[in-house]
Amino acid sequence: MSAARFRETWRDAARAIDRRPGEGWRDQLFHHGFRALMVAAIAVAVPLLFRSHNLPETVDVEMGAVATEDVIAAFDFAVPKDPDQLARERENAERLVLPVYILDASATDTALANVGRFFAEVDSAFRADPTDAGRQGVRDLLDANGLTLTDAQIAYLADAERRAALQSSIETAFRALLPRGVAAMLGPFGQSSSVVTVRGDIDRLVSRDSITTLTRFHDDALAYAPQDASVDGFQIYSSLLIRFRKPTLLPDDLATSTAREQRRAAVDTVSSVVLEGERILTAHERVGSPDLQRLRAYNTELVQRGMAGSTSRRLAGTGSALYTGILLGLLAVVLLMYRPAIYRDVRGYLIVMGLVAVVIASAGLIEQAGYPSELIPVALLALLVGALYDGLIAFVAVAVVAGVVGGQIVFLGESVFALAAVSVPFKMVAAGGAGALGIRRVRRRSHSWVLIALISGAYFLAGLAIVLLRSLPAAELLQALFWGGVSATLCTVLAVGALTPALEKLTGVSTDQTLLELSDLNAPLLRELSREAPGTYAHSINVANLAEAACLGIDANPLLARAGVYYHDIGKMANPQFFVENQPRGRNPHDRLPPRRSAAIIRDHVKEGLRLASEHRLPRVIHDFIREHHGTTMISFFLDKAREADPDLDLDPSDFAYPGPKPQTRETGVVMLADCIESATRVLQDPTPDRIRATIDQLVNARIAENQLDQCPLTLRDLEIAKAEFARVLIGMYHRRIDYPSGVHATVAVAEPEAAADESEAPA
User: Fold this and answer.
1) Helix orientation angle between 231-244 and 151-158, rounded to the nearest 10 degrees
2) Range of 365-379, 401-415, 719-733 with top mean pLDDT
3) What residue numbers bound the domain in which 191 lies?
4) Rg of the Cα trace of the chain?
């Protein structure tokens, strides 16, 4: 690409940045890309503004080493117990668990039933064959029951009386001893406990030593043996006890295990809790075991939270930039969709985004310095954007900045969902919203104290809400009020006294304060107009009254309309005598000039007005009223006069037309209508209400037919309201007064008959 082609490409790009983009992709790319690039630049810079609050690093030291620096906890965390210590404590807790046994009342009945059945079968076997040869059946029965008896013992058992005594003794022993509780054995678990839990109809604690085991049961049951039993009989009794005894005290392993687990779970796994801001290691001191334990817990928590290491910091920075970019992108989209004029104007866009960046940077500096968050100059952003453009965009910008600042790690240190984490953005939104919505209500710079009180009150109410919700001491409220008042004062003085006028010059936007100053009839240019062209001056005041009333009716800017009207005809000062409102009766200098020349003089008052406006450095919006109040209408009087003078002359209609452009705003459209209506109704012979309304309808319809209102956003409803307001004001101006009575007033009327005649038609 040649150098010339390169320069041309960049010139096209520069033009595309600061105007409505065309249909071509290149213009769209340059136009929107420049604005997106600014959003990205601010988003990338935000993590750097708050970089002193990067995520903490893990620290590695050895036991007995000397710490080189203090290590301060960035958040609350728990210090777990040493695994060996925790295991010991859990083991000790388990030892304290009481073994659980269940007393089985049915076991006694089962044992008695088995004894009875056995002796019944033995009786049957002996009755079936009482001979020695028939005792083989008894032996088989004994083998089936796991009993081995000698021949002498079988012979002892063959005696029916002895069998009955054995059965009775065994049943007596079972009934006496088994219901008390007989355990098969006491397991090793819970041996350190001297008490066990026995569950039956009523749970009770029983001494471990008092529990009867099967061995002890056997020893106790021998006391119930038949008194006359021989050695063989005693051995049979002992064998039957062992065979048919039943443990009635059974261990409940599930209940015991559950109790063990409950005791293990009840052991606290945390040895201590370190609070945010608490010192973990102390510089220049030897690291002990508790210090090392806290440090290891802190490092582990950092890793689990994803807050340790350079990689996490890079990810956090990327997240912060993305977070900021999304919020700023939303602000850019709001401007594009709802305030396209600001979005297209590169200076306006740069000012809004630049102010946002300044406030974010100030928040970073204020936080690093440790100053109160109330000093973040969010009110400055609200006041400047609200004064230059409107309160809605200012409020959106404030909300975006509050979101960006509140989303930084330093303000999320306690908890993302804790109220403390949102107290800073909450105060910013409250104070900034008060400034954004209140700036339009202040019409004079001398009333800045109203803004200061409004913003300070917002800080106070926001602080009160935080104090009440968090049960903070009253000192917090007083701090919010004091620093909020300081911030409100500084921001208001800086915005109203210094920055707003400077930004007005830079952007060409006129605030209400500037418009009020321009509307002062003692302004140098207006005083000169009253001297050089008094008729034009009076005409401008009347048109201003009409335009202001109409703008109030259609919700346009009445202050802008009045200021614009005051200066719309200042170009007539170059040749005031050529305009009818400044001509004495009977004298018209146009009578001696050709129509083309007269039309040029009339048309040139627009050009002269623009020259004077530039010379006196009037705002750009005033220039719009000067150039648009006639649009591209024809100076038909002199065009018709030229045609009458020479019908065959080939006339150029552009010589008899105003240069334009047509009205572009509602205010300039209203002024065009008010200008021609005031001039026409002033020369009505009999300005009755009906004639005034008819004249208004005729002139408005004529401007519509001439397509003079095509480029301004006036609706048909707006026009109907404007016509009604025009009629109301004009009817009030031209209503007929009552005749003067005879007397002193009659003398005045005789002395000044013409004045009296005019007075009868003048407004009251």
Assistant:
1) 90
2) 719-733
3) 95-259
4) 53
